[in-house]
Amino acid sequence: MESDYQSKLSYPIELPYVALEIANLSGSEIDPVSFNHLNEYVINEPVGYTYRQAIGLVGQFQSGFVFFDRYGRLAIRNLEDPRFRIDPNEYFLKGLTKIELMYQPKGISCKVVTPKGESSNETNVLQAGSTAGAQISIENNVMTQPLLNLIFQQVKGINYYPINLKWRGNPALEVGDWVTMIDRKGKQFKSPVLNYTIVFDGGLNSTISADTKAYSSNVSTFKGPLQQKLDELDHRVDAAGKNNVYDGTEEPKHPKEGDIWFKKNGPDDEIWVYKQISPGVFEWVMTTSTTMDQDIKDQIENSTPKDDIIKTINLSSEMDGKEWLKIEGAKIWLTKETKIDRAIITSAMIGSVDAGTINAGTLDASKITVTNLNAKAISTGIATGKNLSINFDTGQVNFQSGNITNALGKININLDKSLMYFKKNTTNSSVIGDNGFVVYNGTPTSSNIDIYDNKIIVAVGKFSGTPGLIGNRGLEVASYKYKKLSNGSVEYQRVAGFEVLSNGDAYLFSEENKTLQIGYANTKTLLMSYTNDIRGNLTVGNLNATGAKNAIHVTRDGVRATPAYETTESYLGDIGRNVTNEECEVWVPIDAIFSDTVNLDIPYEVFLQVYDDARVWVSDFRSDAFLVCSDRPMIRFAWEIKAKRTRYEKDRLVLQEFTNQEIEERWREDL
């Protein structure tokens, strides 16, 4: 990123093209989400910058900043509110420092250096907003006054209390996030994370800060009569024309009852109304805020049903001079039951009736005249026989008894036995039975085929308590690929799957030199592969290892392994620090949870490391503590306890069932 950036684009050009070229030329992978949302400002060519400096200019035009995210991608972002909260119990002692003067930028200035000839430059300072109060100063040689004005409009509403917080930390938090905190007075507030450091040294130790210079908003300046009149007009009037509507972070002056103030508070927006809170006492009262509880906000946002909206409902006086409820829509579909009272819709209200659309219901033959009736034109009603009925309205055909077969006799439906099967040949049949689908050896006589029927070749269904795939002569689930030979024939080759043989042997296999993996169902996250690589949690009873037992760690020089510390007997240990008292002794308590895992009623060992110029020793042992003494008072020391694991007190170099020959064979297989 420190190489010189020499653009190959034609300028002026939109900002996203410049950002993508910088990423491509520097070999950086981008975050597509942030790059897709870049402003399409038109800028001139950045000259004399490195890749890092040039992409920083892009961040300025976005009113944000540029960084490499946790995936190593180049990203451009603004301040965002993930609704992250840090409770006081996560602070370190006196960890929060808060400056009570709220910071809000009042103006922004930009230094622009323009070359004049080969040996001279012209320097201009562009200014947006006020020159008084907190200022943002930047340098950008391709900045213009209109673009600077747009940038200031995006940042002028930012306001927060500068803070510095030392706390336990959380890797989920990122620079650029707004975070909610509570000060010593119990007041909840938000500040952005502008700096963030995390240190891991046996535990997380983090510092976040938003360090800026804050200016008091009570500085008085002289304003002429015309400026004072303009300030008085710096508000809006509500729709009724009776009250004023204000916005901004500074409290409006000279309000009257009912005035509304849209106040920006960090990343949130608040609505305040000037009300009388007691006789003769008026104050601004907050009525709503975007900082409401997330569950309430979600209920409000998701409360509109999407399937029950009528597009347009209007009162109309188009019929009889009366007001009717008129529903207009390109498509209206009434589902489920709809009822219209008898005789409500009269003939006068029906525009026309097309006899061709009448295909259901009952027509009184005494009141109609049929000119011609053709049996081929029957399209409604029910035709019923002894064992057969056909409903012309629904298309339903009911067979009461008998068999349904095709001409070849391969499809058979026995209505009396509720049996359906497809006969492949004289030997095998495919049956749709009560319990599932069955490939059957022979011709079935019943649909109730159970798991103990020895004529089942393969079956899929619920033949026992659990749905399953059953094969009485063995079972194979595999993937095959085929290869077309030069003589026109096809050669099939099994590549992967599992096989259960009739003798009880079972195999899970993959193609040679391919991966055999076991993982989670939805994400396919790898748990175990043919290289015996197990991910996630593994719980076993006894575990024997012929090789190394390591923990692996991510380091600055690759992933490194640390071997397990092993002893000839089954010990568990704990480590801690303490200080002797004025009497040159201290009882060190043994952690109660640790004591549940070891046997402290038999001798255990304690090792000491002194951190002062003195001598320390263990003077007494109990099952819940041990006594440490020193030859001088107030001596610092570290201790390590080792005790035998419960139920394994007598284990020592336990003889295994493996032979040296078996171990050697496994060792040679791993070579």
Could you characterize what this model shows?
By secondary structure, the protein is mainly β. Among the domains are: 13-77, no CATH class; 225-301, no CATH class; 403-473, no CATH class; 563-671, Immunoglobulin-like, CATH 2.60.40. The chain is 10% helix and 38% strand. Strands 25-26-27-28-29-30-31 form a seven-stranded antiparallel sheet, with no helix packed on it. It has a five-stranded mixed sheet with strand order 15-16-17-18-19, with no helix packed on it. It has a four-stranded antiparallel sheet with strand order 6-10-14-13, with no helix packed on it. Helix 1 (15-26) runs antiparallel to helix 3. The chain is extended, with a radius of gyration of 41 Å.
Sum this structure up briefly.
The protein has about 675 residues and is mostly beta strands. Helix content is about 10%, strand content about 40%.
Q: What key attributes describe this structure?
A:
671 residues; mainly beta; 7-stranded antiparallel sheet; 5-stranded mixed sheet; 8 helices; 44 strands; 10% helix; Prophage tail endopeptidase domain-containing protein
Sheet having the most strands: 7 strands, antiparallel
Proper CATH architecture of the domain at 563-671: Sandwich
Overall shape: it is extended
Helix content: 10-25%
The count of helical stretches stands at 8
* Class derived from helix and strand content: mainly beta
Rg, Cα atoms, Å: 41 Å
Q: Could you please say which CATH topology of the domain at 563-671 applies here?
A: Immunoglobulin-like
CATH class of the domain at 563-671: Mainly Beta
- The chain-level mean pLDDT equals 77
Strands, total number: 44
The proportion of residues in beta strands is 35-45%
Numbering strands along the chain, what is their spatial order in the largest sheet? Answer: 25-26-27-28-29-30-31
Low-confidence stretches: 214-224, 308-315
Separation of the first and last Cα atoms: 44 Å
